[in-house]
User: Fold this.
Amino acid sequence: MEDIRNVSARKRIAEMAETCVRCGSCKAFCPTYGEEASEGMSARGRMMLLKQFMEGTLEPSELLDERVFSCILCGACNSHCPLGISVTDAIYEGRRVLRTFDRRRRLLSHGAQVLFKKASFGFKLLKLLEVTGEILPVRKLRPFRLLNDFNINIPDTSLREEGALFRVAKPRGRVAVFGGCTANFLYPHIGRSLIGTLNAMSYDVVLPKGEVCCGAPLRGLGLEEDAAQLAERNLTIFQRMNVEAIVGLCPTCVHYIKLEYKKLAGAGMENAMDVSQFLGSRLPELMNGRVRVQKALRVAYHDPCHSSYHLKVKHEPRQMLTALGFDLLDTEQGCCGFGGTFRVLYQNLSESMLEKRADVYREADMIVTSCPNCILQLKSRINDRKIRHLVEVIDEAVTGERP
Assistant:
């Protein structure tokens, strides 16, 4: 394990911890504290534990490791801290130092390196596991059992295998799409919906060759150097493109490529936008007499954590759904419990959070969100109603086609 007396890491966490005035504002919004009301499961508590650990007054332990890695990294604490402390930065630093402490997590880290650094290979492996069914014993391991929980039918091809440039006759501009792993490999129809919508709005669409994982899952496991390598590869590809915007289908990806890459690689994609931001800011263009008003279904919009807390996207998706004629329900915000590897490492906590979301959305005829990973999580519990990405709904209204 890395020397805990790393001067720069210790200094950064100490400064944040000393700035904290212990007001407890973060606790009211922390989803893990909501599940287990102990100080160590709150943002404030984790910050104090990390300070002691980095100073050498607290030894590494299973409990410390669990407290640091059980944070779901939603960003609610950062967003609600009156002093603007980034608790998640401290958590990332703690995970980087503790990354090899838990032997069981080492295996997951090795698997994640293969899956996310070589995503095309990982996609083929998932397809093989689906085809072979119960023949391979590995199918019974927890990470692979999640495939059954999520009820995923692995597509035959990924989104990026379907083309690189989608032109229109008289383009008003050109945009690039950052699909992200989940949309690219598991839900390519969501990407097709975005392409259809953007083409209908007279935008040329580019799917750059060479896009890799944004790096969020690897950094979440403490593998910061691996995440930085992916960041540099994506920056090399996207920064040289002359496009109006880089539109992302996953708010976690957008948060990373726009903001976290500045910490990982020294620069972010400044023109990166969540799909809700891009389409919401162009609502007149989007409507333009083409939209078919929907039936007055009762719709619940699920706010992805990274969209709400990091990208500050709240009203745009609701504005679009209301403009489409849906009866938008007023539901309280909350984390679905996915959190990338959190779903694998802390399954009981994850499922408890998911159960709360299912109860909140019980009156909805349809659930809409803008995050493919939230769709994965929600579908593992809710199977009696449609759960759709925002761009699917918009594409159907704009083009009249079902993906």
